[in-house]
């Protein structure tokens, strides 16, 4: 725990790495939750619609985390 605390203080981008990693992981979890729900719905249209929405939101969250991280890396590379 002390090593994590020292790493957070000594490296300014560590907080962003941790936050964006958790953000991306949450997106992947939501995507797979919808993916499994889609196949377990047994052709029930309303459940498939909800599962599809989960998959889209999970994909968007993961993609947004990647885009934000790459934007931060690009901005940091300018200085």
Q: What does it look like?
A:
With about 80 residues, this protein is mainly alpha-helical. It has one domain. About 90% of the residues lie in helices and about 0% in strands. It is built from 3 helices and no strands. It has helices at about 1-10, 15-40, 45-79.
Which residue ranges are poorly predicted, with pLDDT under 50 across at least 5 consecutive positions? none
Instruction: Report the strand count.
Output: 0
N-to-C SSE string, H for helix and E for strand: HHH
Which class best fits the helix and strand makeup? mainly alpha
Number of discrete helical segments:
3
Indicate the proportion of strand residues.
Answer: under 5%
Task: Provide a brief overview of the structure.
This protein has helices spanning 2-10, 14-40, 45-78.
List keywords for this structure.
single chain, 79 residues, mainly alpha, 3 helices, 89% helix, 0% strand, elongated
Task: Chart the SSEs and their pairings.
Elements (H helix, E strand, L loop, with lengths): L1 H9 L3 H27 L4 H34 L1
Helix pairs in contact: 2-3
